[in-house]
């Protein structure tokens, strides 16, 4: 019996240690106290016997100490429209996975429902700032760095996350005691589906204008002060709490030079997506410990063992190439057939090079070709004409001609090679990303006059993949560009027609790319306005050619998996 009692006491003590509650305020010092507000997760407030009068004070719920601590703490914030705290499953997932990664986790349970006569977020913001101060005060006791405090939240919790990330220098409440002398800034943030971020939703509704319109702007509640921290934003493309709120936040962070990531998921409604991307962001930013040494991409994919056969083919019949120029290389394609075909889809692939050079064998093409062959996908690589043609031809004209002709050749030969002529995608990098945008948005415009029956075949594609596309904005998007595509005057270049055959895209870009990541963001915004769902990922601190060398555990290391995930439904 004594052993049983000791075991019960031990279990109780472990439970208390793992889920210790800490009140944020004393009842008499809590600002803007309202009699109808409570502080409880819905699993608690909906339970039989719940007593609201005993659950008025917001609190922190400290989870167990990680076995291998990295010296960081993450505050977890539920959503619930500021009406309740309902995301128990998310809190549980975040807590388990972050604790496993060595992060001390703590759940913030703030006051709900929305306060009367105040902004919908006011009492939660007060609780949030107080919570950060309390967490910072606990750093020494609990073994983490007071300057390695992060926040992750969902929906209304994502909105509160952004308030804490961008507006810590604006007091949400007047000082109540010595704890309030501590700073309430945070050091890193992950905002999932942040609600109410645009002016057509800031009163607490879904985005009535879908986040669009000249009179719809980013909500002014976000101050973007000097303590604004790096943020990773995650949003579904069909979310009625508009993903344009996340693109607007991202735009402002880039204006300020604050590292950020933006992850937009096609066809997804309101929800938290891509937690793995958040972990990669935390890894890249050093929040989970020292960043591992970078590994060259070409060293990771060296074998052609998953390729069965290569067939080389000229793009143009002899003497019939449009706009020939002596200084340019001869264009050709190569069919790379997988050893084990698992799909009838075809991926056309080509490199960048500023339209001055390109190679089907460099680090941009060869590793992906091998990766896709291993997936069982047929790859067609294109060597298009470079360097740039002489004026009056545009820098991309001859390359565009080569791409349109390539798509027609591939489509015309697909059936006899056992492939699907209506499952063709194009993928390029940098200038090749610009070329991909030409192919995706302007297939109804002929870049050359027909020369034979192949040119009667459509050059429409079913998808595009743009990796750090360049030259997409009217500011040029080059290294001398001071705006990086942030200003409203910097719009998409006119050569992108966005015609009725425009195809959906996957876009991946380095956040610190001098050929601005706003190229990809503004393409995404344009596509969404047309009703076309695209996927987008930007990678914090990463420049042009983010993948050439990369650290394990980061998004610039795993980026080809985004390509795989995007292609799998198309296979």
Secondary-structure map:
Blueprint: H1 2-18, E1 20-23, H2 42-45, E2 59-62, E3 72-77, H3 88-100, E4 103-109, H4 122-137, H5 139-142, E5 149-154, H6 156-166, E6 188-192, E7 231-236, H7 244-256, E8 260-265, H8 275-284, E9 295-296, H9 297-300, E10 307-314, E11 332-338, E12 346-349, H10 366-374, E13 378-383, H11 397-414, E14 424-429, H12 431-441, E15 463-467, E16 505-510, H13 518-529, E17 535-539, E18 549-550, H14 555-567
Parallel strand pairs: 3-4, 3-5, 5-6, 6-7, 7-8, 12-13, 12-14, 14-15, 15-16, 16-17
Antiparallel strand pairs: 1-2, 2-4, 8-17, 9-18, 10-11, 11-13
Give keywords:
571 residues, alpha/beta, Rossmann fold, 2 domains, 16-stranded mixed beta sheet, two-stranded antiparallel ribbon, elongated, disordered N terminus
Explain what the structure shows.
With 571 residues, the chain is of the alpha/beta class. It folds into two domains: 264 residues, Rossmann fold (3-Layer(aba) Sandwich); 239 residues, Rossmann fold. It is built from 14 helices and 18 strands. The strands form two sheets. Strands 1-2-4-3-5-6-7-8-17-16-15-14-12-13-11-10 form a 16-stranded mixed beta sheet, with helices on both faces. Strands 9-18 form a two-stranded antiparallel ribbon. Helix 3 links the parallel strand 3 and strand 4. The radius of gyration is 27 Å and the shape is elongated. The protein starts with a helix and ends with a helix.
